[in-house]
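Explain this record to help learners:
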Amino acid sequence: MSGRSLFQKYNIILRIFELTSKLIPKFVFNLFWFICDNSESKPCLLLRYLYLKKYIKNCGENIFIGKGVVLKNSRKLSIGSNVSIHAYSYVDAIGGITIGDNVSIANHTSLISFEHTWENTEIPIKYNNTKKGSIKVSDDVWIGCGCRILSNVTIHERCIVAAGAVLNKDTKSNTLMGGVPARDLKQI
């Protein structure tokens, strides 16, 4: 049975869990996340979904967060419906990240909404300021495994980012992007 079918079948139960989860303090949720971090069992997937419903900016329905996924600065993260973020991906939303509906983000992918600067030569580069920049992933997007999506990027509708790509510029709709740095490979 697909995730969407399960979500529809158990929608009322999910709503009850969602209401009940509002009583759980964040440190307890964080502890549960840590305990379930290496599992994709249904209870662990449910726990991660309830965490998103409570702690991110906007949250749709039927969201899959795989094992080992790191979510930083989640209050600036918006996720639509029917979204999957697969195992060991890294999402830092300090600059703001919006993910539309029907999006699949494959394993080991990073979405990083900031970049380091190096202008201040008086201190090591690692201590220089960072610049925030938003990331927007539109509806109907597939991001392959091991991609790096950098700040100030919009991935337009019905776009595929090929495995291993480093995306540092906006895409066009209906395009397959690939390479380092990513470029248009073909229209789809």
Q: What stands out?
A: The helical segments are 3-9, 11-21, 26-36, 42-55.
